[in-house]
């Protein structure tokens, strides 16, 4: 991450408060089947690296969604809190959780080959297919993130 900023946010009910020390200024969207099933649409996220802290951790439930990633949500209100890569503790936070959304720029879409035809973003972004994503991160394409 080259451009970052400290960002804070919280879940809908306020039980979980989040501080990301180095949140990217770039917003991404994941169109994979799992992200769309998780949230009902693409996962619009900000890469916040591993320097993320939570106040109210007892309210966080974690779903082990694959061999290499997990997803967190608030036990009380159900707000999606993060997608986290287990090996590096890299957090992708939903952009909507962030209090100050100024200076954010929609830059990347991944799993573009999984995007259904019923929606399209107007922004001109970089795009990556499923194969390209797994090649970039050195993983195997098992269809699960």
Structure description:
The chain is mainly beta. It has a single domain, classed as glutathione-dependent formaldehyde- activating enzyme (gfa) (Alpha-Beta Complex). It has helices spanning 33-39, 130-137, and strands at 4-10, 17-24, 26-30, 43-49, 52-55, 60-63, 69-74, 80-85, 90-94, 105-110, 126-128. The strands form two sheets. An eight-stranded mixed sheet has the order 6-7-8-9-4-3-10-11. It is globular. The model has no long low-confidence stretch (mean pLDDT 92).
Number of helices in the DSSP assignment: 2
Give the uncertain stretches in residue-range form.
none
The name of the CATH topology is: glutathione-dependent formaldehyde- activating enzyme (gfa)
The SSE string, one letter per element, is EEEHEEEEEEEEH
What portion of the residues fall into strands of 2 or more residues? 35-45%
Q: For this structure, what is the CATH class?
A: Alpha Beta
Could you report the average pLDDT, rounded to the nearest whole number?
92
The number of strands is: 11
In angstroms, what is the radius of gyration?
15 Å
Second CATH tier, the architecture: Alpha-Beta Complex
Number of domains: 1
Topology:
Layout: E1 4-10, E2 17-24, E3 26-30, H1 33-39, E4 43-49, E5 52-55, E6 60-63, E7 69-74, E8 80-85, E9 90-94, E10 105-110, E11 126-128, H2 130-137
Parallel strand pairs: 3-10, 10-11
Antiparallel strand pairs: 1-2, 2-5, 3-4, 4-9, 6-7, 7-8, 8-9
List the main descriptive attributes of the protein structure presented here.
3-stranded antiparallel β-sheet, 8-stranded mixed β-sheet, mainly beta, globular, 145 residues, glutathione-dependent formaldehyde- activating enzyme (gfa)
């Amino acid at each position: 991450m080259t451009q970052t900023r400290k960002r804070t946010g919280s879940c809908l009910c306020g039980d979980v408060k989040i501080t990301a020390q180095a949140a990217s200024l770039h917003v991404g969207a994941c169109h994979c089947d799992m992200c769309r099933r998780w949230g009902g649409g693409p996962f619009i996220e900000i890469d916040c690296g591993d320097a993320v802290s939570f106040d109210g951790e007892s309210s966080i439930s974690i779903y082990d969604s694959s061999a290499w990633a997990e997803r967190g949500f608030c036990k009380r209100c159900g707000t999606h809190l993060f997608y986290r890569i287990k090996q590096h503790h890299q957090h992708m936070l939903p952009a909507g959780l962030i209090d100050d959304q100024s200076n954010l720029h929609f830059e990347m879409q991944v799993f573009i080959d999984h995007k259904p035809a019923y929606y399209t973003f107007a922004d001109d972004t970089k795009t990556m297919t499923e194969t390209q994503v797994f090649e970039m991160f050195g993983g195997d394409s098992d269809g699960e993130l």
